[in-house]
């Protein structure tokens, strides 16, 4: 009986790890103070503003796993899209958008 319980607990932990979300998934506070939600969508992770002037607008789409993600980010105030990246470190994510991989801007968002 004890052995079966231990085996069942081990399987449960393994299953949880297999279905664990990527570190980038969740709600993030932007530098403007808005909430951005990053969630799986098709084969990517979509970045959608949940609060603020541009609430409901998708502002990015990224692919990757672990701590590194790449894709596109949109500046909602200018409606311009840039090549982008996201790097997760603990409860923060550094979002970076670039033009020609030379002119870049970065922001660090914190997990809510």
Point out poorly predicted stretches: 3-19
> From the alpha-carbon coordinates, what is the Rg to the nearest angstrom?
17 Å
Cross-sheet strand order for the largest sheet: 1-2-3-4-5-6-7-8
CATH C-level category: Mainly Beta
CATH architecture: Beta Barrel
Order of helices and strands: HEEEEEEEE
How helix-rich are the residues, as a percent range?
A: 10-25%
> What is the averaged pLDDT score?
86
Overall geometry comes to globular
Number of domains: 1
User: Helix/strand/pairing class, anyone?
Assistant: alpha+beta
Q: What is the CATH third-level topology name? A: Lipocalin
Terminal CA distance: 42 Å
Number of strands: 8
Strand count, sense and barrel status of the largest sheet are: 8 strands, antiparallel, barrel
Tally of contiguous helical segments: 1
Question: Explain this structure to me?
Answer:
There is one protein chain. The chain has 112 residues and is an alpha+beta fold. The chain has one domain (21-111): Lipocalin, CATH 2.40.128.520. The protein has one helix at residues 2-18, and strands at residues 26-29, 35-41, 44-49, 58-65, 68-75, 80-89, 92-99, 103-111. The chain has an eight-stranded antiparallel β-barrel. The longest helix is centred in the N-terminal third of the chain and has 17 residues, at 2-18. The protein starts with a helix and ends with a strand.
Layout of strands and helices, then pairs:
Blueprint: H1 2-18, E1 26-29, E2 35-41, E3 44-49, E4 58-65, E5 68-75, E6 80-89, E7 92-99, E8 103-111
Antiparallel strand pairs: 1-2, 1-8, 2-3, 3-4, 4-5, 5-6, 6-7, 7-8
